Amino acid sequence: MTKTVKRGALIVLEGCDRSGKSTQCTKLVERLNSLKIPAKKISFPDRTTSIGSIIDKYLSREIDLPDRAIHLLFSANRWELEPEIRKQIQSGVTLIVDRYSYSGIVFTSAKKCVDLGWCCAPENGLPKPDLVLFLKLSLEEMSKRGGFGNERYENIDFQNEVGKTFDKLTDDFIQINASKDISTLTNNILEIVLKTIDNISCKPLKELNFNEIKVKQSNMY
Ligand code: DGP
What we know:
By secondary structure, the protein is of the alpha/beta class.
């Protein structure tokens, strides 16, 4: 008799720049692996693909692109990894994803060039995360961490706008106070992630559908 493999969980960490997402994703994968839970990290944008290399040039200001064009490229970057995401999840690997469709929607929407509905449309149908953790950091703390480089979007005014737009989109996010120290934060996040992994058992992976966005449904953790 063939043994059915329990699928992995799709876990997304979102938040403004400098909120510690990448560090927490890495630490989380290490902790899960040390508990013998297969887990891998994925980051968006994935700058290693050909679409990702155009995004990289855009972010480093080497090239300019119209807002709608770059929006669709960020989305295409997620779609090109979609088959791999499904494959990994079905083979039992939990994916810890550093940014996802929510960043895509919010960063374009914060430019105020197109409406939210237009920003959401290309994301519909991508695998829906089992859990979205939003790392929340005040603007004051973000500016203390500072260290913004020369990349596009790396300035406090725009990040402020991004934060406000994320606040409007908190669709079932669990909010995490990102001002805690790194290991306390990892412990907090791990606890929630382990519960999610336990709970998904036989539930199939769903698909994103932003046609009915729920606004303001978050709880501060
Ligand atoms: P990161 O590698 O996480 O630092 O992301 C690079 C920058 O790109 C960061 O300022 C956030 C922004 N970004 C990430 N995903 C998207 C997206 O889907 N669309 C847009 N417009 N910006 C994004």
